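From the pipeline queue, job 12 of 40. The input is one protein chain; the requested action is below.

Action: predict structure.
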Amino acid sequence: MGTVWIGDNNQARIICPKCKFATNIDVTKLKSAQRTKKAKCKCGETFQFTIDFRTQFRKDASLPGEYVIQGKREKGEIIVRDLSLSGIRFESFRPHQISTDDILEVVFKLDNTSRKEIRKVVKVIWVDNLVVGAQFIEKTLYEKDLGFYLNF
């Protein structure tokens, strides 16, 4: 099963895994529908694909770091689980007091040859036990470093 990312024009390019036939589909009406779809190619192959409406590519990661909750003085160690130009998902090593809409500073190092330290202020979008999803507040700082990292 492959993942299909949606462009700005709400078009998705679906490619048959057997014959590689490609076609574009309009996904405007699918935004509220189930994300996993089935397709049948003209070659007869039936396959599943997942629609991802994210605007930025998200890369799986395992980057050690830390967070500090602004205004609460709580800090802790984390592992960055995935990363994009617009946000981050991380897991805390221990229970925390992080809540939706909290503002945090997160710091972690990239695991590529540059080993660049990334320091970002984020807004928490969701919390699920030890796992936190957050959006970068300042999106211009480090975009070059993150962009290079995400493309390799």
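Job complete. Helices lie at 143-150.
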